[in-house]
């Protein structure tokens, strides 16, 4: 017994190559060839399998068709899914952007409107107290101007003799033009002033009768006839003039085209301008003339 991979020298035999110099005949070739071909044919015959049956062929065909169908279906699904996913992603992105932009704009507009409404409310809350303060200050200024005017008029009545005489002339002018006795009621100071200004002879000539009335203040006169009466009360005349001043529309001082009302001018108007006197046809009438009685005749010296 020999080991694997080990050659026993006793088993070695000489092997001689064929003699290629000796020609071989056709018979020898035929013999050798026929034997070789027969041997090869026998081996092939032994190795060839049996042909498949019709059922096996149909099964193989069906299996191949099914495998091809499944493979094509899977490839189509994969390709369609990839393309659909890509196309759907682009379309979804565009739609999402448009929808988000629209929602953002709408939400922004609502937020802006809410903010504007809040600012409007805040501004109104700030403006209302300012308007109230402005109105209060304006009313206080008007009241102050009226009080100043009253003080100025009272001083004017006490220091100016012409104011009382002008008021007297205006009251006489308001009476009907007919010869009748006129009764003039005045305070003690005005009574003395009228008597000294006209004199007893002139008063008698004009048919004027002076009567002392302590209840009347300085500058106030009351002129009576048989059918008419004219009251020239300084307080009433001043009150009417101040009412006219207060009722005039006052421009905004913040606007250049509307200059502010000058208080001094208003005081001048109240102390110098005369309003129309009422008609003496009624038993009692009021005089709208100012304290100075502008427009009347000057009393004689």
Automatic annotation (TrEMBL):
Database matches in InterPro entries: Flag_FliH (IPR000563), Flagellar_FliH/T3SS_HrpE (IPR018035), T3SS_Stator/FliH (IPR051472)
Gene Ontology biological process terms from the UniProt entry: bacterial-type flagellum organization; bacterial-type flagellum-dependent cell motility; protein transport
Similarity comment: family membership: Belongs to the FliH family.
Task performed by this protein: Needed for flagellar regrowth and assembly.
One term under GO cellular component: bacterial-type flagellum
Keywords: Bacterial flagellum biogenesis, Bacterial flagellum protein export, Cell projection, Cilium, Cytoplasm, Flagellum, Protein transport, Transport
Protein name: Flagellar assembly protein FliH
Keyword Magnesium: no
Region Disordered: start-end pairs: 247-301
The organism of origin for this protein: Ferrimonas lipolytica
GO MF term (any one): cytoskeletal motor activity
Keyword Repeat: no
Limits of the Flagellar assembly protein FliH/Type III secretion system HrpE domain: 116-241
Subcellular location: Cytoplasm
Taxonomy, superkingdom: Bacteria
One protein family per Pfam: FliH
């Amino acid at each position: 017994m020999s080991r694997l991979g080990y050659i026993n020298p006793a088993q070695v035999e000489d092997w001689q190559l064929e003699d290629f110099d000796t020609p071989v005949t056709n018979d020898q070739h035929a013999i050798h060839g026929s034997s070789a071909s027969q041997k090869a044919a026998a081996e092939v015959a032994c190795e060839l399998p049996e042909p498949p049956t019709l059922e096996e062929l149909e099964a193989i065909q069906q299996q191949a068709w099914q495998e091809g169908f499944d493979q094509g279906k899977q490839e189509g699904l994969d390709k369609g899914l990839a393309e659909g996913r890509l196309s759907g992603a682009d379309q979804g992105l565009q739609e999402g952007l448009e929808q988000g932009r629209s929602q953002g704009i709408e939400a922004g507009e609502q937020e802006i409107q809410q903010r504007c409404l809040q600012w409007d409310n805040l501004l109104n809350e700030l403006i209302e107290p300012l308007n109230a303060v402005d109105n209060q200050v304006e009313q206080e200024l008007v009241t102050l101007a009226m009080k100043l005017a009253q003080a100025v008029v009272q001083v004017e009545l006490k220091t100016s003799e012409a104011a009382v005489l002008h008021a007297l002339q205006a009251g006489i002018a308001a009476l009907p033009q007919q010869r009748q006795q006129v009764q003039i009621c005045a305070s003690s100071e005005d009574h003395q002033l009228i008597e000294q200004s006209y004199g007893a002879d002139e008063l008698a000539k004009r048919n004027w009768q002076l009567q002392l009335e302590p209840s009347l203040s300085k500058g106030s006169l009351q002129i009576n006839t048989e059918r008419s009466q004219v009251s020239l009360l300084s307080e009433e005349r001043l009150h009417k003039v101040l009412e006219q001043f207060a009722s005039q529309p006052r421009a905004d001082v913040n606007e250049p085209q509307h200059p502010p009302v000058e208080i001094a001018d208003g005081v001048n108007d109240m102390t110098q301008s005369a309003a129309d006197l009422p008609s003496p046809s009624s038993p009692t009438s009021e005089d709208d003339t100012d304290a100075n009685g502008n427009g009347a005749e000057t009393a004689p010296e």
